[in-house]
Each structure stands twice: as structure tokens, then as C-alpha cells.
Amino acid sequence: MLNKMLNQLGQLSKDELITLNDAVIKMARAKSRIESVAKGATLKVGQVVEINHPKHKGQKFTIKKINRTKCVINELGGHSHTLFTAPMSMIIA
Q: pTM for the full model?
């Protein structure tokens, strides 16, 4: 189905492509918000999590605060009191 749609893109006018692009972006953002809310419902303050990021691979963090789309986290067992703000999409429970 996707290949068929991609093949037909060349037949659309510039205005139709702009309208299609706007619709795709809105749908992608809506799905991202739904995933964020669903993931946020499973996270709890004090929970130990990891982050899907190469710089922090293997590090454990504790959730300090849960916002609408992001979480405030602190490194577990770390001597630094630095808090990070990470999007829920990057958090691995």
C-alpha cells in the first residue's frame, strides 16, 4: 500500500503535496502524543529506568518528576546531583 502511494506522489500538484505533508505531520504528532501518554501512565516517581541514548548507555536513573511529555531523572548512585530532563519516548522502563 505504501509503495503504491509513493508511486502516485509524482502525480500530485504542489498544493496537494503541501496539504498531504501537513496532514502527515499532524498525524505523526498525534500518534507521538498518544504513545507519550500511554508510556507516562506506566511510569512512577522513584522508578529505576534507563535512557535510549548512546552517551548514557547502561546507566540507571531514578525518576524524580513526571511532566506531560518529559520526565526529570537523576543518575542512580551518582555523586552528582545533576537532574536531566528526558522525553518519555527515550525512557526504557
A: 0.66
